[in-house]
Amino acid sequence: xxxxxxxxxxxxxxxxxxxxxxxxxxxxxxxxxxxxxxxxxxxxxxxxxxxxxxxxxxxxxxxxxxxxxxxxxxxxxxxxxxxxxxxxxxxxxxxxxxxxx
Length: 101
Description:
Elements: E1 3-11, E2 14-25, E3 28-32, E4 41-50, E5 54-63, E6 66-74, E7 88-91, E8 97-100
Antiparallel strand pairs: 1-2, 1-8, 2-3, 3-7, 4-5, 5-6, 6-7
């Protein structure tokens, strides 16, 4: 079920994603791809695997003079239990400031 309210992801004050609906999983906000500034994202070869969500792919982000390695991830083909985060992207909170209101 989608969460409501405003969620924002910023890097040094620059908005890189903003959404009125999103998904929250394990304390991470997953933004719809349509809410993300794709011009600052570059796919990487890095990946990880979650037992219940599947294989995650990563993006580097270049924004406001900073290059952040593997700062965002998404599940291109999530497992059945994680279909609600398909076409959504999340950010490492240590690299990107994420808030909701």
